[in-house]
Each structure stands twice: as C-alpha cells, then as structure tokens.
C-alpha cells in the first residue's frame, strides 16, 4: 500500500471521496494531497512536459470532484479511476501534439549546485525520460505504471482496459526497447562499474 | 544493459518525481470547493408553464430583471427609489449639509433635478 502524504493513512480514498461528496472539505484536502502527486508524476512522464502535466492533473482531479456524489463504492479504486482519466487526457494531448507537429518543450535544467550523486541521479532520470519518450505510447504507459508508479499488473490492466497478459507483453517489450536505447549511454550514466 | 542497470534508472526517475507546486494544489482545492458549493445550491425550480397571453411581457420583464442583476438588485433599486421620493417630499433639513459637503456650496438639491423651464418658455 502506498504511503499517503497526510496523517490519515487509515482512511481509504473511497471513504474520503464519499465524505467529500457530503461536503467535507477536510476530505477534499486529504485527497488533493494524496492523489495529486501521483497523477502529476504519471502525466509528466507520459507527456514529458511539466506544464501540460499540471493541466492534466488539475483536469483529472476536477472530474473526480464532479463525479464524487455518483461514486459507487466497491466498483473500482479511486486511484485506478483517476489514472484511467489521466491516461485518456494524456492520450488526447499526445494525439493533438502529433497532429500539430509540435515537439515537447525540454525541461529547463536545474542549475542548483549539489552533490555529484544528485547530478548523476538527475542525469539518469533524464536519460530514462528521453528513452521513454521514444517508446510507442501504450508501451510507455504500461512501463510507467508498472515500474515508476509501482502498480500491479491487474490494476494496470484495468486502467488501460486490456488483459493482464497484454500488460505483461507491453511492459516486456517496453523494457527491451529501453535497454536497447540506453545501452550506448551506460558510460555517461555511470553504469559501467555498477 | 542488464535488468539491474535499468532498475537503477527507474529508481533514479522515482526519486526525481516532480512535486506538485503549491499553486497547483491551491487550484485543485479551489475546484473541489467550487464543485461542492455548486452542489450545495439547489437547482432552480422548473419554470411554470406560461399561458399564451402575457408571455412576451413576462419574458421582457425577466430580461430586464436579468440585465439589472436579478431580484437582489431590484431590492436595492426599490430602496433607492423610495429614499429618493422621500427626499423629494420631505426636504429634510440635514440634506443641505450633505449636498454642500459632496457638491460644494454652489449647488442645491434642486440643481440635480432636470428642469423643463427652457422648453416651457415662449419664444
């Protein structure tokens, strides 16, 4: 179970959403703190663009607020539902981007001086993001949900509306492609002597 | 590249996950409160069936009312109208002090009222 960013880890997302549906502002605050980081990082990795990811996160959360009174407990996990909404929003944006021929704007470099280890971590994260950007969209989505968001295959299957076997196939192909794409950069990423 | 090496890149990406800005969290909370507020306000009752006669007049009244800002504005207008009429009839003593303070000594309440004298003169 994921740790929450708040002090009410014992309350499930479903309980909190039901409470918010009854007008509980505290529940909305906890859900905001708990779910926004997850949906934001998912969208940022899928889109490779921080500003667009913020828009997607806000829109996905807005849809969650809107459907709160109609939420049927036990039907799905709130986080699964939210990831699916965010995934669809990202897909729409990626399609629009392709049709407009726009490239994603590269993230500004963080100039904060820090330890060498931190710089290496950032370089690795950046290299992985670049490799992810080169994957077919469905592979990228499956790899992000499995290896970065840490979700189990059945939940990913539910989010992507495919079978568990299809998830396994997508993640396996995605990992193979990532390895192939990143092999040439092992040296610069400090992997040669790991 | 080995699985372990790829895992180290995944780990690097996990610890470099973007944190939501305070502004984003505030916008999302604003949305939550706005949605909760919208739900708290009951839907307006369905409009009663209008009879054929008088519907144009009612619609005109509704348009004027909407343009003025609805019934709360009408209440303000009604109050202002009543006070204006009362000032006109009662000519309260303290009004001179108010008009002097606001407009200066050269004007009186009568100067604020439109005059028809120009049009009534024979010429």
Automatic annotation (TrEMBL), chain A:
Residues 126-178 form the RNA polymerase sigma factor 70 region 4 type domain. PANTHER family: RNA POLYMERASE ECF-TYPE SIGMA FACTO, RNA POLYMERASE SIGMA FACTOR HI_1459-RELATED. Belongs to the sigma-70 factor family. ECF subfamily. Residues 34-98 form the RNA polymerase sigma-70 region domain. Gene3D superfamilies: 1.10.1740.10, Winged helix-like DNA-binding domain superfamily/Winged helix DNA-binding domain (1.10.10.10). Keywords: DNA-binding, Sigma factor, Transcription, Transcription regulation. This is RNA polymerase ECF family sigma subunit. Transmembrane segments: none annotated. Pfam families: Sigma70_r2, Sigma70_r4_2. InterPro entries: RNA_pol_sigma-70-like, RNA_pol_sigma-70_dom, RNA_pol_sigma70_r2, RNA_pol_sigma70_r4_t2, RNA_pol_sigma_r2, RNA_pol_sigma_r3/r4-like, WH-like_DNA-bd_sf. GO terms for biological process: DNA-templated transcription initiation. GO terms for molecular function: DNA binding; sigma factor activity.
TrEMBL record, chain B:
The chain crosses the membrane at residues 60-89. Keywords: Membrane, Transmembrane, Transmembrane helix. This is Dihydroorotate dehydrogenase. It comes from Rhodovulum adriaticum.
């Amino acid at each position: 179970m994921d740790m929450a960013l708040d002090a009410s880890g014992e309350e499930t997302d479903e309980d909190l959403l039901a409470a918010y549906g009854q007008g509980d502002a505290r529940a909305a605050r906890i859900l905001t703190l708990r779910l926004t980081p997850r949906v934001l990082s998912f969208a940022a990795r899928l889109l490779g663009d921080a500003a667009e990811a913020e828009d997607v996160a806000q829109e996905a959360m807005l849809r969650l607020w809107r459907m709160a009174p109609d939420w049927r407990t036990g039907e799905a996990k709130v986080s699964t539902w939210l990831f699916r909404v965010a995934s669809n929003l990202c897909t729409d944006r990626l399609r629009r981007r392709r049709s407009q021929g726009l490239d994603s704007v590269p993230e500004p470099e963080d100039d904060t001086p820090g330890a060498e280890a931190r710089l290496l971590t950032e370089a690795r994260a950046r290299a992985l993001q670049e490799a992810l950007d080169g994957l077919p969209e469905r592979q990228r989505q499956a790899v992000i949900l499995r290896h970065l968001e840490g979700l189990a295959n059945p939940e990913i299957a539910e989010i992507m509306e495919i079978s568990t076997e299809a998830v396994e196939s997508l993640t396996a192909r995605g990992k193979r492609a990532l390895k192939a794409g990143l092999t040439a950069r092992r040296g610069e990423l400090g992997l040669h002597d790991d | 590249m080995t699985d372990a090496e790829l895992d180290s890149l995944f780990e690097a990406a996990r610890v470099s996950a973007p944190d939501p800005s305070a502004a984003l969290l505030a916008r999302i909370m604003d949305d939550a409160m706005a949605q909760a507020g919208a739900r708290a306000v009951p839907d307006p009752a369905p409009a009663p069936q209008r009879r054929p006669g008088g519907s144009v007049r009612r619609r005109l009244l509704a348009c004027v009312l909407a343009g003025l800002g609805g019934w709360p504005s009408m209440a303000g207008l009604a109050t202002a109208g009543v006070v204006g009429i009362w000032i006109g009839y009662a000519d309260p003593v303290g009004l001179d002090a108010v008009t002097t303070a606001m407009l200066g000594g050269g004007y009186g309440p009568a100067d604020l009222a439109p005059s028809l004298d120009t049009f009534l003169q024979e010429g």
